[in-house]
Amino acid sequence: MTADAARFLADLHELRRIGAFKTGVHRPTYSPQDMESREWLMRKMAEVGLEPEMDGVGNVIGRHKGPGPHLLAGSHIESQNEAGWLDGALGVMGALALARAGLPVDVIAFADEEGHFDAGFLGSRSAIGDISEEEIADARNRTDGTPLPEALKAAGLAGRPRMLLDPARYKGYFEMHIEQGTTLESAGERVGVVTGIVAIWQFRLVFEGRQDHAGGTTMAERRDAGLSAVRLLAEIDREFPRVCGPRSVWTTGRITLDPGAPSIIPGRAEVLFQFRDVSVEVLERMEACLRRLAQESDRREKCPVRVEAISKAVPALCDPTMMDALSAAAEAKAPGQWRRMPSGAGHDAQVVAQIMPAAMLFTPSIGGISHHWAEDTKEEDLALGIEVLADGAARYLAVG
Amino acid sequence: MTADAARFLADLHELRRIGAFKTGVHRPTYSPQDMESREWLMRKMAEVGLEPEMDGVGNVIGRHKGPGPHLLAGSHIESQNEAGWLDGALGVMGALALARAGLPVDVIAFADEEGHFDAGFLGSRSAIGDISEEEIADARNRTDGTPLPEALKAAGLAGRPRMLLDPARYKGYFEMHIEQGTTLESAGERVGVVTGIVAIWQFRLVFEGRQDHAGGTTMAERRDAGLSAVRLLAEIDREFPRVCGPRSVWTTGRITLDPGAPSIIPGRAEVLFQFRDVSVEVLERMEACLRRLAQESDRREKCPVRVEAISKAVPALCDPTMMDALSAAAEAKAPGQWRRMPSGAGHDAQVVAQIMPAAMLFTPSIGGISHHWAEDTKEEDLALGIEVLADGAARYLAVG
């Protein structure tokens, strides 16, 4: 099985013109640029013989007209603000290349994988039946607060039905994506066969102290919520390496001291903290460590801390047979220049994996730049990627 | 010498009605409420026989018409937003009570001691000749960015001359103020004779890292500016007690991680850090410690830190003869229920002290609440305060 790499690259470059920003793109979900790219995609699908359809949240699917067994392949087509040209677009154009090559593939572009709206994985969750009308009614744009129903109406999607994927139709789901890290690049490798997608466990740590004048309050009298937060974060930094897995990561993305003035002792501190791993056991160990450190903090500090779980996703393991097919293809096309590796970022594949076998392929990321207009992959690596994906998909269809 | 404590309390309660907010007041500098209180003050000054005048930055002075030697007494009349009824108002009404009692006192209300505009101590610095027209032209409101010249124009002050205090006219400056801490309350004491006003040294600590995706970047690859900031702040917390003085304080008022999103490793962190002491030697030791810890941080961390001094004020020591006069008055009126203590907060007295002897008297603060509408002092302590102030001022006039 071979894919037409030149056409695949030409498609990517054509799509990159819609919402172009410097060398990247700006296509936030349901923006005019995003809707233009969805319409463009439907025309492309029709060109390669698929039956295109857009649903009530903007999911675009192009259905293969022939008999099964079918594969589902794709990703998402909207971008983060002023972000890279590949990201989700790569997986959708890759899926289109599979269909063009004659494989029995339904091509899908899930809406809002990037989470411009706070529902999270809106399109893929809707497509597997994992989101309610209430949740859609309550969701808002994270940047400007626009209610999701209003945005859907403005995009002309109000009243359309939402599609439901039928697991019986598919043998599995393939998603190609840029790595969003430097593991492949650092090792001089060109293809990553993804073993699983890490789960993100997000927490809000809230410290309650007492707001006081920074001049009139002695160190002994203070209940400085910011200082308690700093001490706990320093403890986490020391203790997490003892409990984490080899690829675990943890991140403090925001620290808010209230009121945030130079001469006022913070009466409240709020920390956004998250960790990621592909193993539930490791995630549970990290949470237990976090809660133990919070307890120790409460014994030591004058400002109690509340640990609030915001979200605890389930890690998704990739299907072993699909991984084997991709590995065999990678070894055939790029011997010794590929590896198996987890995905540190979230992807629609983790949602789809809840209803069918799923697997992912990574292309290297130049300098690991992600969610920024400078994001890029060498064209020869993109071309190799589509060859491995097509060969892997054909191998998988051939087994069992 | 006795002051009319009942009239003094009645004045305070009358003033509290202007801009009343819950049990406190809201009189930001040059707001209609603030300007109303300045006009009210000028009428009060005339009532007690002073010659009132308002200058080009809103300083209000009521000059004693008789012969010297004169004292200057006062504080400020604007408030922090939604703040307490005493704060600066106490010192101005206290000064008015001295004039009413017949002492040769000029009463002054300096404008914007609270620093609504970023010039800092605008009124008192202007009155000692320590602020240029350029600085006034460049100053802005910290909350809404309004240029100071625009605010002065709106308040009807444009074009008025700015007053200059003549040190030759005064034997010294007295300022009464609420403690803004719990030292007196905790000890069951009722009067504080201030020994000096601590200086605030303010710094901005800027950490430069690399913004990356929190999923795709391993812990080893990261250059997390927020984590470097947390580690340095934890070090400061451990090391400062070794170099500080008995009443030193240090405060982190704000931590800003950039971009501040849950799934993005902060590429930049900015910390507002300050410390205060009454001794330059201690302040210099603390700064040396901060810079040593920053150097160690640079050796240890992947994110370099820049230590930027925002402001380094000079501590003001109170005049020993004035302190002795206040101490004798305190011992006479409240034997064993007073102490000498530094002021942790900044006051106009530290500016005035640059051109004449200055001293301050503290009343206890209930619960140490400051810059909040709940700020309060027991009425019996307010009454005692004005008696000690009047007696102390008379004793000081009698010496030398």
Automatic annotation (TrEMBL), chains A, B:
Residues binding Zn(2+) 2: 87, 114, 371
GO molecular function: hydrolase activity, acting on carbon-nitrogen (but not peptide) bonds, in linear amidines; metal ion binding
Record key words, sorted: Hydrolase, Manganese, Metal-binding, Zinc
Cofactor detail note: Binds 2 Zn(2+) ions per subunit.
Keyword Cell inner membrane applies: no
Cofactor list: Zn(2+); Mn(2+)
Binding site for Zn(2+) 1: 76, 87, 177
One Pfam family in the UniProt entry: Peptidase_M20
Record-stated family: Belongs to the peptidase M20 family.
Subunit structure: Homodimer.
Protein name: Zn-dependent hydrolase
Lineage: Bacteria, Pseudomonadati, Pseudomonadota, Alphaproteobacteria, Hyphomicrobiales
